[in-house]
Design goal:
By secondary structure, this protein is mainly α. It contains five helices and three strands, in the order αβααββαα.
């Protein structure tokens, strides 16, 4: 599964998929009140399928798509992927930046709770 950041349209389509799943390209397209072409939605769904984020099966002449992961599971997997890459590439600098960001968001106490739980073998 490709967990690289999604583009704006891919994100919008995934949000619609999580709300309507399973759905065809036509059903997703009908959710948007803008000038996006139906073929643009079809192409985006196909791209998301090839990235491993959607499954699909034939429904007559159309494909019916469904997310492989629910929204919460996807967000967790993507976040773990991105944070892991930052730590691998930047080590201590990334860790320090994360703690600084947690401090600005007044989340240090929660971070300490999560670290303590991890040390005790809880998730």
């Amino acid at each position: 599964m490709n967990l690289e950041p999604l583009g704006e349209l891919e994100t919008t389509v995934m949000e619609a998929m999580w709300a309507l799943s399973p759905a065809t390209a036509r059903e997703i397209h009908d959710q948007f009140n803008d000038t996006r072409a139906y073929t643009t939605i079809m192409t985006t769904l196909d791209r998301l399928h090839h990235k491993g984020l959607l499954t699909r099966e034939k429904d007559g002449l159309a494909w019916r798509y469904q997310p492989k992961l629910g929204k919460a599971a996807y967000e967790r997997a993507a976040t773990e992927h991105h944070v892991g890459r930052l730590l691998e590439e930047h080590g201590e600098v990334a860790l320090t930046a994360f703690v600084d960001a947690a401090a600005r968001a007044t989340s240090l106490d929660r971070l300490a709770e999560l670290v303590a739980a991890r040390r005790e073998g809880r998730r």
